[in-house]
């Protein structure tokens, strides 16, 4: 294949990275990475431009022999449907890709160009790299509401700008924001995913090994991994056992599944960390966390109900009477199509009357001819002009290739009014005089052909009109349902700016259920009693961690609440240790999302005893970054009293991380 390109590379974006430009050679790596992002964006735009030159109108339509099967068409992405199916093969040949990879590239390019244009601009500017695009493609692009999708895309890009943001961090933020603003669609996706759960195996890269995958809900997966880890840790110590913890977990899994009667593994206790906003426990849609993974509120409510035996608090417990309209779609067997009326809000759709069998009204002298339509179906002006031109061509025999005959308009109208069926004969001869009666028979066939075409167009217009009315009805019903939910206690709990407002918005039943849940779990039954996380209403930063007894004591004594005080020794007390781990939750090193080890030590920013054992001088790290803080030469870690951590590299780059907000 040969070809040419006249594209000229633009100058690279001048906006510096969030951490600044490093000196060579690390600065050259940064510049090269930005150029890769820029060219990747140009590639996406070029692929989308190529797709625009291959419209689907060139393909065989659905139902025609040799067309794409209905099953494949149904599975085809919406952004690919306007594109010819053969564009994938052409792209595969040009780029030496498999058909699957070419189609994925085509779909990704069209999605970025048409549904995530700001993301593509950020990629081209070097603000993002290719790995950042995936969370937005997976979770933001499918949002049907254009305004909501654009707003979320803008907010996420603004959040990621000017900081060290890994794809994993952006993915976590994206899941949280999508779940917060598009909770119902997220719940639908979760329900579909649960129906697809299962176990599968695939060959690994090394011959003789395979990877077993299990699609489970988040709490099930977290509990499974935690249980396997506990089983591995409970094995008797053996100096000759050189297996890693992961290898012991794999062997425990095989023993439990394949040899359940032969295993002498002791029972273990699984500990899951659950973070649930007060609004979620009151029936709202605020996103929650299980072991650091974002999950819908319904998942946490179901988990707590299963663990505690306490009745589940559902949105139905906090919802008022639903006044949203019901959707009673018109049936296709009756000629009368009436859209339903809505009671909240009131909205009446136009009602189409039954069709009348009016004959097409021709005008004198072959002038403009009216289109026979039912009164409730609007007439497209372009279609009216096409109809007039088509009828004129039929009447003047242009479609048959002959010369325009001399036709008397009054006689033509009289013949059109004839309702009898003439006998079937062949077409009139092109040369010579017509036999007696042949002209009338041919005109009758032409008349029936025009009538049939008009009936077909009319039926299509009626079906389109009914579809539009159904879509409008569904949109009104959905808007009314959203308005009713937003004004219900569950909706007010979800949108409440703080916990006190959420409590005030909840029903008495929901508040009583929450009190019962806290009382049922406060005395035991769980690995630890539930803690109340008090946060800053504006920033979401942790202020203090308490429980019901401590809250009652503070109220009785008239004192305030704050972080635990200073510990006397090197190790923090239980309350201070719990406070710092709850504040940080994950390793504080820029870009790291590893969990802070439960049994690991918290780090003193200023080494003890020069630095105190307080929340302002403690930070959580994973094992690797904890070692790096003390051993890597040339690095500086600075912690402020509010928990903000500034890390400076040996080359002078600085990255700032803050405790993740609630």
Radius of gyration: 35 Å
Mean pLDDT over all positions = 75
Largest sheet: 3 strands, antiparallel
Strand percentage, roughly?
Answer: 5-15%
Low-pLDDT residue spans: 1-13, 319-379, 394-409, 415-429
Spatial arrangement of strands, main beta sheet:
3-4-5
Instruction: Kindly name the structural category.
Output: mainly alpha
What would your notes on this structure say?
- This protein has 662 residues and is mainly alpha-helical.
- The protein has helices at residues 26-52, 70-75, 87-95, 99-114, 117-125, 130-140, 146-160, 167-181, 183-195, 218-234, 245-258, 278-281, 297-308, 315-318, 381-395, 409-416, 438-486, 489-494, 499-505, 508-522, 548-557, 574-584, 623-631, and strands spanning 198-203, 210-215, 274-275, 288-290, 293-295, 342-343, 346-347, 532-535, 542-546, 603-604, 618-619, 636-639, 645-648, 654-657.
- The protein has a three-stranded antiparallel β-sheet. A three-stranded antiparallel β-sheet has the order 12-13-14, with no helix packed on it.
- A hairpin with a 5-residue loop joins strand 13 and strand 14.
- Helix 1 packs antiparallel against helix 5.
- The radius of gyration is 35 Å and the shape is globular.
- Mean pLDDT is 75; it is low at 1-13, 319-379, 394-409 and 415-429.
